[in-house]
Amino acid sequence: MEKLESVPPPADGNSRRGFFQAGILGLGAAIAAALGLPALAYLLTPPKSKQPNRWIEIGELNQFAAGAPIEVAFRRNRTDAWKVVSEKDTVWVVKRADSSVTAFGPQCTHLGCAYHWDDGRQQFLCPCHSSLFRIDGSVISGPAPRPLDRYETRVENGRLMLGSLRTVGERQA
Amino acid sequence: MKRQVESLAAWLEDRTGLPGAVAHFLDEKIPASGGWHQVFGSVAMFLFLTQAFTGILLAFNYAPTPGEAYNSLRYILTEVAGGRLIRGLHHWGASMMIVVVVLHMLQVFVFGAYKKPRETTWMLGVVLLLLTLTYGLTGYLLPWDNRAYWGTVVTTKIAASAPIAGPYVTRLLGAASGVGVVTFARFYAVHVLILPPATLLLILAHVYLVRRHGVTPQPGDELLPKKPFYPVQVFKDTAAIFIAFAVLFMLAVVAKVPLEQLADPTDTSYIPRPEWYFLFLFQTLKFFEGPLEIVGSTVLPGLAVLALFAVPFIDRARMVKVTRRTVAIGFVILAGIGWGGLTAAAVMSTPREAVAQVDYSAPTDWIQLSPEEMAGIAYFRQESCASCHSAGSSLGPDLTRTGIHKDAAWMIRHFKQPAAVRPGSAMPPVELGDAQLNSLAAFLLKLTPENSTALTDAPDFAVRGAVVYQDGHCAACHMVNGVGMKVGPPLNGLAKRQTRSWVDDHFANPRKLSPGSIMPPYQFSAEDKKNLTAYLFSLPE
User: Fold this and answer.
1) Residue A71 shares a structural domain with residue A36
2) How far apart are CA B214 and CA B207, in angstroms?
3) Of A128, B132, B364, B372, which sits most exposed with the smallest number of CB within 10 A?
């Protein structure tokens, strides 16, 4: 058997050679698939999230004055893959006369700069590219593509709680 | 189409010469006696590449510092898709590589393929074997669990005992003041920065030498025409690689690689064991005591490595047929018996795990549950609730997914007379006492899709231990996971404060060990006591 291979290929020599070539390719492809597909799943599938978003208390509702927006600092635990990081975060709280509350994420929806409340103009102003927002978060002018992001809010025993941050739709064209 | 391929090939050939080089490589002429016995080198190279591939994937989700390393590995195992498989491939691939490298050396040894002019090929091979073992030694520390930590403590102590070089080696390993962050950084750097490029270069040199001298012919080959490497021998190599890979994949899927608790340098009760391929060294060490210890730890292994290097110079006889190499074959058999005997002796002298260990490579949501809820899991399992209430069954609702919107009173009525609260229910009544039904209800109320892994992953010893805890009304004085009373000390973190034997003795006669204690004595069965202690020791701090 072994000696045949070195003899110039007889009539069936090509099919024999073809069998070995197909075998090499087939087995190689099987191994590549068995390694490659799990690798893709490993890199591309989002990891199971263990920690659902918790509600965070940021203070007594009474302590916030109605009217002008107030920037409130708080600490939150954020799960970052295998780490839980405790980090400082801020929120712009707008309390209206009827005690209803809106809480805006602290970053401009354009490129993420920290905006502030301009008391004179009664508008939110982003210093980076001059985006302007109304007190309800909607865009007045500037490059911001959508209104300010809002936290889910809930009042529990007179305490203001924050949920997760949500975007509020794209700006109408 | 065919013409385009041909012109592309011609272009590549002209600009790079690559197709010609590959054709030249594949067309190597090998002796007529070549065949299945020569596949091991290719398999070893394949396994090396697989290790590199899975190692890189692990590194994508791994933080190489103590503590973080452990947490990120847990994250890979419990949260990343395919993480368990990738880690399994890397873990078992290391063992497979040792096996295949040794088989490769045995084949070369038995066939006398190290003889003139192939001495340097053999010596490079010995260096590659040592590199493979170094991968095992350094990779062992990287999970940073108890096993990794204590295993490495022993390794560095052995290195420290080496004559003259000992203190310097210890400093080089960053272990002068014990195994710590520096040791870890150095082991990691060796494992991922030094070894892979070194292996790659040495494999290239090794393969170059094989090409330079040709595959070793056997006596009689000179009379027969040579044959090309491709496709028949390449097919045999590929088939062998496929078989090796299939075995590796099966191991990675079937054989669970546990992760022990985070490395605890204060856990003096831990008995470290090396990886199976180092067990023979571990056993050899036991024959030498006191000042002779360095004979077993460094002198003998050092001489063995030297002898391995010197093989081509010790045996300079002319090449003869394999079947007549009786001395070489006898030597291999003797070495095999010696290695097997030492390994078997080491395995037999390994104490059976006296206490149950928690496997942290699986989700451990159960660790947060109260003893009452844990006991509920025991009853859930005992009454085989999952045979109807599970994802795979349509008989009852899957309790892990739906969430339960009933209160405890409803559940307990439902347990006692299922059809009374849910007309038409085919569920048989649960025959348990009120306290047990309360436990079951407490657990089910706590069950959410997020912590449902507790149902399958809570170890048996822990749920049984929790039942003993409930039956003994321990919660009337003690607190676990925030549930219970504070008359006695809270039991979280007990593992840090007391030893297992202290706790075991304490049950029978509390006042003897803690004078003034008001805890009543308990007479547990041996089984109950073992489960209860193991459960209490598995509690988080």
Assistant:
1) no
2) 10
3) A128
All domains in chain B, ordered by first residue:
30-262+269-277 (1.20.810.10), 365-537 (1.10.760)
The strand ranges marked E within B145-228 are 227-228
User: Which tokens hold the place of B432?
Assistant: 């348990």
Neighbours of B217 (CB within 10 A): 17
> Looking at residue B354, what is its pLDDT?
59
Report the gap between the CA of A8 and the closest CA in chain B (Å). 11
Report how far residue A136's alpha carbon sits from residue A94's, in angstroms, rounded to the nearest whole number.
8
| Contact of A28 with B235, CB cutoff 8 Å | no
Is residue B225 within 8 angstroms of chain A, CB to CB? Answer: yes
Q: Does the structure show a pLDDT above 60 at A170? A: no
Q: What residues pair up with B228 in beta bridges, in sequence order?
A: B29
From the list A17, A24, A41, the residue facing B81 with the nearest CB is A41
Residue B204: the pLDDT is 97
Q: Is the pLDDT of residue A3 over 80?
A: no
Q: Is the pLDDT of residue A126 over 50?
A: yes
- Same domain, yes or no, for A66 and A147? yes
Q: Point out the residues of chain B with pLDDT beneath 70.
A: 352-356, 402-404
Helical ranges in B383-475 per DSSP H: 399-402, 408-416, 418-421, 434-446, 453-457, 460-471
Cβ atoms < 10 Å from Cβ of A12:
10
Q: B117 preceded by cis ω (within 30°)?
A: yes
What pLDDT is stored for residue A102 in this prediction?
92
* B71 part of contact set with chain A, CB < 8 Å: yes
Distances (CA, A) of B383 to A64, A146, B426, B437, B468: 54, 56, 15, 11, 17
Closest CA to B357 of B530, B152, B141: B530
Q: What pLDDT is recorded for position A1?
A: 40
